[in-house]
């Protein structure tokens, strides 16, 4: 349509050329080439506007009827307005008005026999028509630019949502959100963005995008993050619009702009931050569900799945170092359950869990495997040190009593296995289980380290 429209606009001046058809054809060819090339590339330098105006002036001078050149002006203003800024639209308007002011008098000199009324009509109608069409072209350029900016922001929101869709790590979620805000700032001339976090020492600037005259590390500790006045130390020449959410009252993002922040920019930033907050809430829910899936609800210890996962991670390390596993089975626990009830049994299990945690380090893993079975993963200590910890467990467990008069006591049978280089997780756990059964079979209330000659009397669990 652009090419056909250009050809159609060039036809009347060529037909009505006053004896200079070859020169008129060359001028129209140059003008048409400039229009088509600029449109296809979606850009045109200022020199192209000057060239267009010069060609338009020549078309005016060598036409029998100067108003036929108006079609050229219309085509040029319309097509150039599709991909240029409002400043360039204003420059183009001035150039074409000058072309009418210069070209029409030159046409009158070249056509001395022409009716003076044609001169006046061409000058007045040309100026008014050019001004009107230029205004239309400017409005068209502004509309197209706004639509393109809106489309880019919608794509930014969509892309950010896709990146956040599978993000469960808080640090990654923050990086994605920050990158999206930076992209919004880069796409909006004059926009600035600052994010802050309030702590015990005041308000710390965590990130910024866009030009800031002053970038202090901190802002005054006193003040409301939701007040635009709080952000003025970052730049008196900016209007600041803070974005604060109830989920993060100690954190905020503020947008700065030389004038009022455009509403569509604020809406885009708000949509991005809403997606970030949604992803953050999802990550918290996922973490909570994962903790619940790996935690024993009664004792708060790691459950069997969590213990197996933790042990597998340690053994898969290229250099795990000394590793020992204790499998613990409580002796005579069934008597407590049968005679005092399950509530007393549960209370005793909680006391055993507290005892185990008090006898190991914070880096070790204590787990309740189910029922009255427990396990401990010891890292960075040799088998002798692990045996000493196991003996303390045996002693501490034997001192736990239940009942009104403490008439019910329990004990602990413990199997100890040392992780060897190349040992698989399944083999390690089976060995610890076998050693524990050996200890129970030898009289309960004792420790048994695994030995190669141990053989299961029953199928290991």
From TrEMBL:
<dbReference type="Pfam" id="PF00990">
    <property type="entry name" value="GGDEF"/>
</dbReference>
<feature type="domain" description="GGDEF">
    <location>
        <begin position="321"/>
        <end position="452"/>
    </location>
</feature>
<dbReference type="InterPro" id="IPR043128">
    <property type="entry name" value="Rev_trsase/Diguanyl_cyclase"/>
</dbReference>
<keyword id="KW-1133">Transmembrane helix</keyword>
<keyword id="KW-0472">Membrane</keyword>
<feature type="transmembrane region" description="Helical">
    <location>
        <begin position="122"/>
        <end position="146"/>
    </location>
</feature>
<feature type="transmembrane region" description="Helical">
    <location>
        <begin position="56"/>
        <end position="78"/>
    </location>
</feature>
<feature type="transmembrane region" description="Helical">
    <location>
        <begin position="90"/>
        <end position="110"/>
    </location>
</feature>
<protein>
    <submittedName>
        <fullName>Diguanylate cyclase (GGDEF)-like protein</fullName>
    </submittedName>
</protein>
<keyword id="KW-0812">Transmembrane</keyword>
<dbReference type="InterPro" id="IPR029787">
    <property type="entry name" value="Nucleotide_cyclase"/>
</dbReference>
<dbReference type="InterPro" id="IPR050469">
    <property type="entry name" value="Diguanylate_Cyclase"/>
</dbReference>
<dbReference type="InterPro" id="IPR000160">
    <property type="entry name" value="GGDEF_dom"/>
</dbReference>
